[in-house]
Amino acid sequence: MRLWATTAGLQILNHLTPESVGIRQYETIRRHTSGMNPCLALADVGNAGSVDPADYWRRDVQTLLRHANNIVCWSNDIQSLGVEARQPGQFRNMVVIYAGGGKSLQEGVDRTRARVQSEIDDFVALSEKVVRDAEPRLRGFVEGMKYWIRGYQDWVLKDTQRYAAQFAAVDADDRMYSV
């Protein structure tokens, strides 16, 4: 919660300054302001039971958590761009930061989408290694991460009205990712 509150304050400051933070600083801020960390931390309980702390803190498992968080956050930066760009005040997300570096908005979207796809590819490859010899609770935890990624995409497609207008004419397979 401290990281969330601290990075939320940093995000507010970022919106108030004429120059945006760099992409690496933004990634850290975004990772903690998204709310994904506490949700992902509970993904084990909803699936196969509490994962052992030694498994939870393994480097490869922490890397999977970071990939899952990045996938959802950066996908949201693309999917919410049209809505958030029309909000009052300065708004910055990964797409806008890339575009602000001398690229077009479309190039910012393309670069962000490529980063999301890379995170998905890395998540899939690493998750296959992690679950190969994992005990059931750790396998359930990894499944829970996958459910969160897919659940976010389903929420955008089927539940939230926030992005409905901008996606009304776009086929879901053209914009969604699968894990």
Automatic annotation (TrEMBL):
It is an enzyme of class 4 (lyase). Its EC number is 4.2.3.-. InterPro entries: Isoprenoid_synthase_dom_sf (IPR008949), Terpene_cyclase-like_2 (IPR034686). The keyword Metal-binding applies. Its cofactor is Mg(2+). Keywords: Lyase, Magnesium, Metal-binding. Belongs to the terpene synthase family. Pfam families: Terpene_syn_C_2 (PF19086). This is Terpene synthase. SUPFAM superfamilies: Terpenoid synthases. The keyword Metal-binding applies.
